[in-house]
Amino acid sequence: MIPDLLATHLLIGLVLGLLLTGIRLVIGPGVADRFVALDMMTVLAIGITALTTLVTGRKEFLDIGLGLAVTGFIATAALAVFLERKEGDQ
Questions:
Q1: Which of 23, 39, 54, 83 is deepest in the core (most CB within 10 A)?
Q2: Structural domain total, the chain
Q3: 71 is in which domain, residue-wise?
Q4: ∠ at Cα 70 (42, 49), nearest 5°?
Q5: How far apart are CA 17 and CA 63, in angstroms?
Q6: What would the pLDDT profile of 10-69 be if each residue is shown by its tens digit?
Q7: Helical (H) or strand (E) element with 10
């Protein structure tokens, strides 16, 4: 009973963080701020998949988390290249 209750509270916290970070993504003042919010959303989504793996015992959710992590890394690297080229043009 206690592990189920703990998992529920953790999931609610992660989803709340995901919603607040989504708001920051929409109202962020700059491109870098919005991308940090997108990275944070990726981390929270990975946390949700890890928690789901613990609760259900199905290891397939770890593959989803790994896919999210790789996608987030590639997106971060792509943004870094984009921002570097943008600063070089000025």
A1: 39
A2: 1
A3: 2-78
A4: 50
A5: 22
A6: 999 999 999 999 999 999 888 888 889 999 999 999 999 999 999 888 999 999 999 999
A7: helix 2-27
